[in-house]
């Protein structure tokens, strides 16, 4: 089970007999949107389709403009009226957002009172930079020359993603430049603070994520203390948590 499947299943399990209207914020190619609609859930998506990670060409033509909508990267205005959604999901999105407060305010606007948000993304403490596959690369200051050499050294040892046809140093320069421009890692305290300004009942469910991802090994997962499961997920994958609009 991947993150897309987890989100679809987690939301579908909470549907019950009620009608749910769901927004996937930063939907990419629309995997979660399509999965939810297959479950009979009224799901929509939006994305800025920015240059550093545009999936617009991968979106089904019949969905774009009808179910999945582009946003202006300068305003991040969600193209829906106030109080539209029962739930908003964002999967691996918030680490790309330069102004988290503005984005959360806009998400809050389109949620109904009592609606939930489900967020999956890494904070600064995660051990591996997941976009390029180099441990601790995001811990270095942006535009750090040492970071480029560090990543190139590990790439020469075989680490890193998307290295085909490039020397370790050229690959490292490109990847570090991409990280400088398109990622914004925050501390857990900063993330909690930003969400707490708009939402209540922030609850972490990393252990639930792990249980579903490893459900074929339930007995093994069950013997591991919850606190340790959360620690492992946060360090190896990232945060998984929910919050509610008052």
- H/E element sequence: HEHEEEHEEEHHHEHHHE
Question: What is the CATH topology descriptor of the largest domain?
Answer: Rossmann fold
Class based on secondary structure composition and strand pairing: alpha/beta
Q: Indicate the overall shape.
A: globular
Protein name: Methyltransferase family protein
InterPro entries: Methyltransf_11, SAM-dependent_MTases_sf
Domain Methyltransferase type: 23-117
Organism: Sulfurisoma sediminicola
Summarize the entry for a quick read.
This protein is α/β, with parallel strands linked by helices and 246 residues long. The chain has nine helices and nine strands.
Task: Report on this structure.
- This is Methyltransferase family protein.
- Keywords: Methyltransferase, Transferase.
- One of its GO terms (biological process) is methylation.
- This protein has helices at residues 3-13, 31-38, 100-110, 145-156, 168-182, 188-196, 206-213, 218-222, 226-236, and strands at residues 21-25, 42-47, 68-70, 85-91, 111-121, 128-129, 134-135, 200-204, 239-244.
- A hairpin with a 4-residue loop joins strand 6 and strand 7.
- The two termini are 32 Å apart.
- Helix 7 (206-213) crosses helix 9.
- The protein is an alpha/beta fold.
- The strands form two sheets. A seven-stranded mixed β-sheet has the order 3-2-1-4-5-9-8, sandwiched between helices. Strands 6-7 form a two-stranded antiparallel ribbon.
- The mean pLDDT is 94.
- It contains nine helices and nine strands.
- The chain has two domains: 3-124 and 185-244, Rossmann fold; 140-182, no CATH class.
